[in-house]
């Protein structure tokens, strides 16, 4: 289960998406996430799904590898769907005990579940096609204008990059600790949800110790290499926008325009509602 988390991991392969400037991918991901929360009908979600499917195809990252990351959010996804289904007021369809399922609740729950799935896949696609170094340089470049108001753009970018890079490392460490304790008779799979949560407590202490040790080793290594932030720092590869980035921004504008137009096509949206 822990190895199924794909956020923060990089999938090395040569593709058009991998060769894009990291700033293009960061901006595109932010715009895509914002657009998902503005979509209100099936036509808009259809456009978002088609766009994401095209990006996955161009990235050459196996779809199974990307979908693996959804296994870790199944509980959160189910909780969100059920919460929206039972708490949304509207035309009642099913009523039992103190719960009432409404037509509007089903639509809201379906949209929210689909929105979360697309959000996780879209975010994972960015980290799968962008190395930590590229991600750091891209975030720092985008935050550079904030330096005029004394915002430490480089430090923020470095912290975000290190945090993403440490996700798979800590997951691998957790998996090793769990296997070591299971070899000594620990049981993490039997019992109810509360008992499973309690059985995970002994893992936290060695995991925190390992995390602090790795952080200390990283800080020592950075100091040994005379790291002083962005003061006098040079890069072997400077970021430059290319023709493919211009095409990507144009496609992004068309995507946003298509979503905007979908909000003003109620006839098409109602037809899709009737069909589905």
Spatial shape: flat
> Which sequence of SSEs, written as H and E, runs from N to C?
HHHHEEHHHHHHH
Terminal residue distance: 33 Å
Largest sheet features: 2 strands, antiparallel
Uncertain parts: none
- Percent of residues in helical segments? 55-70%
- Whole-number mean pLDDT: 80
Indicate the proportion of strand residues.
Answer: under 5%
Content-based structural category: mainly alpha
Q: Going across the major beta sheet, what is the strand order? A: 1-2
How many separate helices?
A: 11
- How large, in whole angstroms, is the Cα Rg? 22 Å
Number of domains: 2
Total beta-strand segments: 2
Task: Give your account of this protein's structure.
By secondary structure, the protein is mainly alpha-helical. The protein folds into 2 domains: 1-130 and 241-276, no CATH class; 133-239, no CATH class. It has 11 helices and 2 strands. The chain has helices at residues 22-38, 42-59, 63-67, 74-87, 103-128, 132-143, 153-183, 193-199, 201-224, 243-262, 266-275, and strands spanning 92-96, 99-102. Strands 1-2 form a two-stranded antiparallel ribbon. Helix 1 (22-38) runs antiparallel to helix 5, helix 1 crosses helix 6 and helix 6 (132-143) runs antiparallel to helix 7. The longest helix is centred in the middle third of the chain and has 31 residues, at 153-183. It is flat, with a radius of gyration of 22 Å. The protein starts with 21 loop residues before the first helix and ends with a helix. The mean pLDDT is 80.
